[in-house]
Each structure stands twice: as C-alpha cells, then as structure tokens.
Amino acid sequence: MILGIESTAHTASVGIVSEHAEIVALVSDMYRPPSGGIHPREAANHHVEVLPGLVASAMEAGGVHPHDIEGVAFAQGPGLGPCLRAGATVARTLALVWDRPLVPVNHCVAHIEIARQLSGIDDPLLLYASGGNTQVIVYGAGRYRVLGETLDVGIGNFLDKLWISLGGTFPGGPQLEALARDGSVLHPLPYLVHGMDVAFSGMYTAALALDKAGVARADLAYSVEVTAYAMLTEITERALAHRRRSDVVLGGGVACNGRLRNMVRTMVEERGGTLFAPPNRLCVDNGAMIAWTGQLNLRSGRTAPIEESGVAPRQRTDLVPVPWRERPG
Ligand code: ATP
Ligand code: FE2
What we know:
With about 325 residues, the chain is of the alpha/beta class. Helices cover about 45% and strands about 20% of the residues. Adenosine-5'-triphosphate binds near residues 111, 131, 132 and 159.
C-alpha cells in the first residue's frame, strides 16, 4: 500500500491505495474561506493543522499499520507554494519515521491517472477541467501531451471568481450548477475558442454586466454553464477528430458537473465512443489519486531522496515523465 498526501490548494487529503488500485482509505478536509477567494497562507495553516489528524484517521479507517505502507507519496506541484510545502513536510516526516521511499507526484497527472484507472479505457483522450487547469490531453512518447488548454484562467477559477463577485462563497462551481437548474433563457456571452484553446476572462466581464443589467440569476448561471461547457465540448471534439480517437475520460473538480458530463457524453456517443467520469469524490482533489499515482511512480523507480524532494508550484502536466505508459518494444 501507498499513502498519498494532497495539499496543492484548498483541500488537505490523505488516501491509502493498494497496488491493485483498491482505495483502502480516503479522508479529506477542505479549507473554506469565510469570504472571498483562497489566501495561500491561510489555506496552508489549515493544512498544517489538519494533516496529522487526517493521516491518523486514514490509517485507522483502513486498519493499516505503518509496516503495511510501502512508500509515501505527495503532490509536488503544481499548486500554491505554502500549501504544497505543508503536505511535503508531513510526507518527508512520515518517510523518515517509517523508513520508506518518498514519491513526488504531479497533481495533474494524478487527476488523469485515477480517472483512467477507474475508466478501464487504456488510451483515452482526457479532458482535465479543474480549478487551475483546463486541458485536453493525450498520451504520447513518454508524457501526457497538452493539445489545447485555457489561455487565461482555469474554468473552475473562473466559476469561483464569478460566484464570489456575485456575493457568494468558495467554491462557486457546485452552487452555480444548482442555480442553473432553474434557468431557461440563454443570454449571449463571449464564446472564445481558438483552435483547441479556450479563454474565459471575456465571459467573466460580460456575465457581471448581465447581472448589473438585471438578468435573473438562474438564467445567468444557465447561460454561463451552457456557453462555457459548449466551449469545452467543442475543443474535445476537435481533438478527437484530429487524433482519430473515440473515447473520452473526464477528470478534475469541474468534471463533477452534470451538465458538462451530459454535453460531452452526447458529443462522444454521437461519434460512437464512450465517456467516463469518476465519482465526485475522486474528481475533486483527493489523497487517493496521489497514492495511486505514487504506486505507478514507485513501480517505475521514480522516488526522490529527501534533499531532492522540493515542491514545484509550476510543474505542468507535460513536464513530467510517465514511464509506466511506455510499451516494451
Ligand atoms: P487544479 O487541479 O487545477 O490544481 P484544484 O486542485 O484547485 O485545481 P479541484 O479540486 O480539482 O481543483 O477542482 C476544484 C474546482 O472544481 C473548483 O473550482 C470548484 O468550483 C469546481 N467544482 C466542483 N464541483 C463542481 C460542479 N459540480 N460544477 C462545476 N464546478 C465544480
Ligand atoms: Fe486538482
């Protein structure tokens, strides 16, 4: 078994996963700022406070003893520096005390790998839609390749920021989804697709202007969801066509969204393919995805001595090798 620690942004989480990808334990605690967006230092203080308790509860919930743990994985990046350091410090301490290898994991690759494992689809096209990231991804020659992505903010950050500007609290995505269910009038909003890339800042400004003009909140939420998720569906379809693929796997927190799932599913099924999205608790940030990707890294010999285990706040999806996907010959 591997113990994995997630602490890149708002969520502190500990997962324990077996070599067969069985989730033995998963416990999480999300930092919710009383108002406004996430302040990195405050979120990091939250993680420092809760992580030791989360490790203890995960071990207890799974009936796991330290000698069952083969390695300690942690999210090395990308993410907020102070938050990453909180998780890395706990991981280093456990690795030293238990005398086990330390396994740094890329957070984006972890979102991808847990979704791919659960899907049972060996080589899908991936739509990774989360707070900080919005990427269409395919594996090629030892790495995950980004075919298209957001040119400004991640879709989740866009939804959260919009919701907070409308007077709400973090996280905005799920609350906008609930509100959008009562909407029916589609107001035009900037639809920014450039090839396989997207951008959301124009929609943010336009949505606030619609709100000022007195558009009903439910219709506003509905219009934002339909427009933003149509953009993601379009770039995913373009990538499928160019790469001659048919199956799609969704990952990241925004993949919890029912409308996004339905829109992408309709497109994929019309093309004769299959769509898979993980259960919500494994779409949002969680320690199980770090532990599972830790398993893949450990089996490929990708561990790090303590002195080379520094965090990497800007470590992109396509920056890290994924040797477990290479085929012999
Ligand atoms: P990244 O993976 O890019 O580092 P992150 O780690 O901050 O981002 P995740 O936990 O993967 O984020 O996703 C959190 C985001 O998902 C938040 O922006 C949140 O609003 C959004 N989200 C969660 N549930 C839903 C939903 N039902 N509909 C839309 N968005 C959602
Ligand atoms: Fe994430």
